[in-house]
Amino acid sequence: MAHSRGNLFILSAPSGAGKSSLINALLTKYNDMKVSVSHTTRSPRPGEENGVHYHFVTVDEFKALIAKDDFFEWAQVFDNYYGTSKQAIEEQLAAGIDVFLDIDWQGAQQVRKLVADVETIFILPPSKAELESRLNSRGQDSAEVIAGRMAQAQSETSHYNEYDYVVVNDDFATALKEIETIVLAKRLSLQSQAIRHQDLLVDLLR
Amino acid sequence: MAHSRGNLFILSAPSGAGKSSLINALLTKYNDMKVSVSHTTRSPRPGEENGVHYHFVTVDEFKALIAKDDFFEWAQVFDNYYGTSKQAIEEQLAAGIDVFLDIDWQGAQQVRKLVADVETIFILPPSKAELESRLNSRGQDSAEVIAGRMAQAQSETSHYNEYDYVVVNDDFATALKEIETIVLAKRLSLQSQAIRHQDLLVDLLR
What we know:
2 copies of one chain form a homodimer.
Chain A: E1 8-12, H1 19-29, E2 33-35, E3 38-40, E4 54-56, H2 59-67, E5 71-77, E6 80-85, H3 86-94, E7 98-102, H4 105-114, E8 118-124, H5 128-136, H6 143-157, E9 165-168, H7 172-187, H8 190-196, H9 198-205
Helix pairs in contact in A: 1-7, 5-6
């Protein structure tokens, strides 16, 4: 069987919906699924590694990459820049790897304009109360910061209807299975299967 | 949770690809998936029941239904008519049931023109040799009939690229899982989830 080109997915969610944990669980299970590593100008948090969690760059370096049109999408969120390298994603897709873009609704809008064949998934928390509890349980932030995050989460959530798929992260295993289902279904699309099974199609149609 | 409207699927395949067995296995597993029962003017085969496998009608009865615009799609194949009742499908979809149309490429073309939101799946046999072996193993037909069926299978297969998804029925359990994946992914689409989780969305956005 020929290997088919990978598929591009966007995963967005309000903070606290559990998106990162879901993506990590999926990457652990499948070695042909990867998450895009973004560039950012913000400072690394404890435990974050350059090149693994983000490519950490200065504002000047980031602006130089914008000038070179090296970003698939980029955004300024508060005082920091975030962007997704075009070249790295293209190489992974060509190698047959499914690539997840872990970006917000603004990034998703930019990518949709550039790429016709992208499947977009929005992840929701199971309730407002649970979301607030999850944001509190980090135990690192003040009530004011949490209130700000709740407002930010609501703003992000208001864009759910721009996405192809919606997954509710109530039970983690169920939500994981659902994202997996969406990704695996895409592999069965005509476009992918026609390449994967080209020898069979020649055999059947000769 | 509110129940969402069911989704409509078309499953087509050359004779011998194993489509009927796959559909039957799926219906056994899920009570909210049904296959549309078609009308036909052909004679029942041994074991076929009226209203279960087909609605068996006369040519005059069939033509009267065409005149009443009671068919979603209909076709003449060789000397026989086959058609799909609009009303029965609409009732099932409204009840939240996923409905499979087991029709050929001509029927699929007609349905696509009438319904924007239909997912179409084409099932392939694993090889030409295996297809011929499957068509022979029925042991009811002459070599000439089998050769005719192979030609018919090739003609049907040539339309695979009109479908959204392609599934290869090499290993039955795998093919079954793949069709299931396509159907379950569709249930996670924005359109279905926005209805199913409308209370949650109100909660998160209030």
